[in-house]
UniProtKB/TrEMBL annotation:
Keywords: 4Fe-4S, Electron transport, Iron, Iron-sulfur, Membrane, Metal-binding, Transmembrane, Transmembrane helix, Transport. SUPFAM superfamilies: 4Fe-4S ferredoxins. GO terms for cellular component: plasma membrane. This is Cytochrome c oxidase accessory protein FixG. It comes from Marinospirillum alkaliphilum DSM 21637.
Length: 447
């Protein structure tokens, strides 16, 4: 069975294989899967370990709370991640895609389910076009049901990083979930089912932007999955092996095991995700034919041509330097992040108002948010000037609902210029001072 993406076939039947790189892929992907499905259940002090809480405008990350003012930390982490991705692409090609990308991980999971329910790739290819009836219909339906089940669990888990899953599940079980939540879960389930089950390799072939710009990252010293044409050509027939011919016996196993259906022997292609499946399949053939392994291997163009290459190149070191600088900036941001934020806005409806007792008042709105779960209340005090008085709640609950609370500051109308005000916000572990102004009739523009 030949399995080429370029041959015009509408469906690729991927043959599963074993080997060093497949074991390495599992060693990387299974901890990531366990982290994805398990971390949503972990709690610290009654709160999820990782939660994107849009309602209270905060991110909970490993027990630490981050405000929107801490966005620069996330920016530094994203820059570090991008620089690390560029480093990997320049050093080893698309190894991220082959070993750790969620699209690839879920594709392999769906392929494994397909293998369990409908049999091996050769069996699936032979049954194409046959009537769907009897045991074949049962296996096909079982496959799609298991795909939908895995997609639903994936969508539910993903949603649990935005809505605490311990709160969401009781709502779903008791049929009290909102229509918006149900629609979202349905969309995430269908997207996972389509991406990993029905579309799968087409994402890597046509939709993934990384496959388009990876060539800019790589150079002649990039060690990617490569076919050694100097050793493999001309190919000899697997049915009539000729010891005088070169190493490749044209068994096409490297094509059959490729999750994107390409033929690595045609050279580097944008659809190659450097998963190493073709290397494992080819090495098995080399063992059986008594030849040295490595006909397909991670190698650079310079290595294939027998020239010396240099792994540590200036551009590669530059990417690493950017990554280290971004990680350092994020670490500094973690160290100096704020646990308490406060905003003071003047009432735009009127600059001031004179009360019946002759005092003049300015009106404000105050919003206070805490990003430390131990902080429950904050005290609001006017520090200076002492001749003015603050009217409003002296204690605010730190529930992070984003509510603006009305305050007024009153005093004698005696100053000719706006006076600077200092308002102090105090919790058990934080003190924050904010500055605003007090405007009198004499200092107002209308005067």
């Amino acid at each position: 069975m030949r399995n080429k993406a370029q041959s015009g076939a509408t469906k690729i039947h991927v043959r599963l294989t074993e080997g060093h790189f497949q074991n390495l892929r599992r060693l990387i992907s299974w901890p990531l899967l366990l982290a994805f499905f398990g971390m949503v259940w972990v709690q610290v002090d009654g709160l999820p370990w990782l939660l994107f809480d849009f309602e209270q405008r905060r991110l909970i990350l490993f027990g630490s709370h981050f405000a929107w003012q801490d966005f620069h930390i996330m920016t530094a982490l994203m820059i570090a991640g991008a620089a690390l991705l560029f480093t990997l692409a320049m050093a080893w090609g698309r190894v991220w895609c082959g070993f750790a990308c969620p699209q690839s991980i879920w594709t392999w999971l769906f392929l494994r389910i397909e293998h369990w329910t409908e049999g091996r790739a050769a069996q699936r290819a032979r049954s194409e076009g046959q009537p769907l009836q009897g045991s074949r219909l049962f296996r096909r339906v079982s496959k799609h049901l298991l795909w939908l089940l895995l997609a639903a669990v994936t969508g539910l888990t993903f949603t649990g990083y935005f809505i605490p899953i311990r709160e969401m599940l009781p709502q779903l079980i008791s049929m009290q979930a909102t229509p918006a939540l149900l629609i979202w879960l349905l969309c995430m389930t269908l997207l996972t089912y389509l991406n990993a089950g029905l579309v799968r390799e087409q994402i890597c072939l046509h939709a993934c932007p990384y496959s388009r710009f990876q060539g800019v990252m790589m150079d002649d010293a990039t060690r990617k999955v490569s076919y050694d044409r100097f050793r493999g050509e001309p190919r000899r027939s697997s049915e009539h092996p000729n010891p005088a011919a070169d190493a490749c016996i044209d068994c096409t196993l490297c094509v059959q095991v490729c999750p994107t259906g390409i033929d690595i022997r045609n050279g580097m292609q944008a659809a190659c995700i450097d998963c190493g499946a073709c290397i494992d399949a080819c090495d098995q053939v080399m063992h059986k034919t008594g030849q040295p392994t490595g006909l397909i291997r991670f190698a650079s163009e310079l290595q294939l041509q027998g020239e010396a290459d240099h792994f540590w190149r200036p551009r590669l070191m530059g990417y690493l330097l950017i990554c280290l600088v971004a990680v350092s900036a994020a670490s500094y941001g973690f160290y100096g992040k704020k646990e308490l934020t406060a905003e003071i806005r003047r009432d735009r409806g009127e600059l001031f108002r004179v009360l019946s007792d002759g005092r003049l008042c300015n009106f404000y709105h105050i919003k206070v948010e805490s990003f430390n779960p131990a902080q429950q209340q904050v005290a609001v005090v006017l520090l200076e000037p002492s001749e003015l008085s603050l009217y409003g709640p002296q204690q605010l609950q730190l529930d992070n609902r984003g509510d603006w609370v009305a305050y007024r500051i009153c005093g004698e109308d005696s100053a000719a210029a706006p006076r600077s005000l200092l308002v102090q916000f105090t919790t058990d572990s934080s003190v924050l001072i904010k500055r605003t102004t007090f405007i009198s009739r004499l200092s107002s523009p209308s005067a």
